Amino acid sequence: MESSDRTPQHPVPERPVSERSEHDAALPGAGAERTPAGPTSGGPAAAAGQAPGAEQGTGAGETPAAAAPSNPAFHRQPYSFVRRGDRLSPKRQKAWDEHAGEWVLEIPRVMTDTSVDPSYRLDHEAAFGRVAPLVVEIGSGLGEAIVAHAAAHPELDHLAVEVYKPGIADLLMKAAQAGVTNVRVAQANAPEVLEHMLEPGSVHELWVFFPDPWHKTRHHKRRLVSPAFAELAARVLEPGGIWHLATDWQEYAVVMREVLDAAAADFENLHPGPLADDEHPDTGWAPRWEGRILTSFERKATEAGRVPRDLAYRRR
């Protein structure tokens, strides 16, 4: 998710370290030490995937011999995220220790600690203990939106895709306090989750709320919402499934709409109208989706004078 300070004040690292979220830009410095991306203990989350012929992911900083840089399976596209730090406060550490083993999925890795082994497939029933319509949020941040939705909709299963460990720990804490059991977390690079981990047509709703706009022209290639990402979204959404998007960056909102309108073979814009432009910035947007609670980030964006824009598309 986005933040109020979204331009890295340091060179973009050659080797990606983690995913950007709404909360991590407030933390100083560049990428922190690499940490294991999943729990180390067993539990339902540990048995929730299948990776035929693949070994379990390595620890932080380890590079298995089979995953040399020349490995064609390794995701080499520009990453849309920068991790700011993984140190946990005592309260967050307690939440991680108590709940990560059950709710954070163990995902086999290829090279980095946010990669997804191409042979890995999520076993939905093993992960959640049932089969129910699946809601996936890309960049769940501190977990405010997805935990609130999970509490309001116990009939749905929810998968949070996030790489920032303190944010995941906060999500675990909120989920425990709310008493929800229908949330799981994938600490992984989102495009790889959609390309490898999730089965085709397995997602009921997909959320992308406030992704980093990477507003400098030279960083546009890092934007999450792109034609390639739209293809991955189309792959996992069930027919009739809804893709909800929101951003507080006007130019990126227009780009999002252009990208998805260009994918008309796969998606139907539920609120088409005239195409928004600089002279008519308020046309063609979806009304604010009532299923998205007002998070602390969105409130700060509004206070700063930025206007959140919503988009909603249906999978054909």
Automatic annotation (TrEMBL):
Matching entries from CDD domains are given as: AdoMet_MTases
One Gene Ontology cellular component annotation? tRNA methyltransferase complex
According to the record, the residues making up region (Disordered) are: 1-76
Which EC numbers characterise this protein's activity in its record? 2.1.1.33
State the similarity comment.
Belongs to the class I-like SAM-binding methyltransferase superfamily. TrmB family.
Q: Which gene encodes it?
A: trmB
State the name under which the record lists this protein: tRNA (guanine-N(7)-)-methyltransferase
Residue numbers binding substrate: 216, 248, 295-298
**What keywords are annotated for this sequence in UniProt?**
Methyltransferase, S-adenosyl-L-methionine, Transferase, tRNA processing
Record field: compositional bias (Basic and acidic residues)? 1-25
Record has Transferase as a keyword: yes
Which sites bind S-adenosyl-L-methionine? Answer: 137, 162, 189, 212
Q: Name one GO molecular function term.
A: tRNA (guanine(46)-N7)-methyltransferase activity
Which pathway? tRNA modification; N(7)-methylguanine-tRNA biosynthesis
Keyword Hydrolase part of the UniProt annotation: no
Q: Which organism is it from?
A: Kocuria varians (Micrococcus varians)
Low complexity compositional bias: what residue ranges? 35-70
* Entry function: Catalyzes the formation of N(7)-methylguanine at position 46 (m7G46) in tRNA.
This enzyme catalyses:
guanosine(46) in tRNA + S-adenosyl-L-methionine = N(7)-methylguanosine(46) in tRNA + S-adenosyl-L-homocysteine
Q: Which domain of life is it from?
A: Bacteria
* InterPro entries, per database record: SAM-dependent_MTases_sf, tRNA_(Gua-N-7)_MeTrfase_Trmb, tRNA_methyltr_TrmB_bact
Write one Pfam family the protein is assigned to: Methyltransf_4
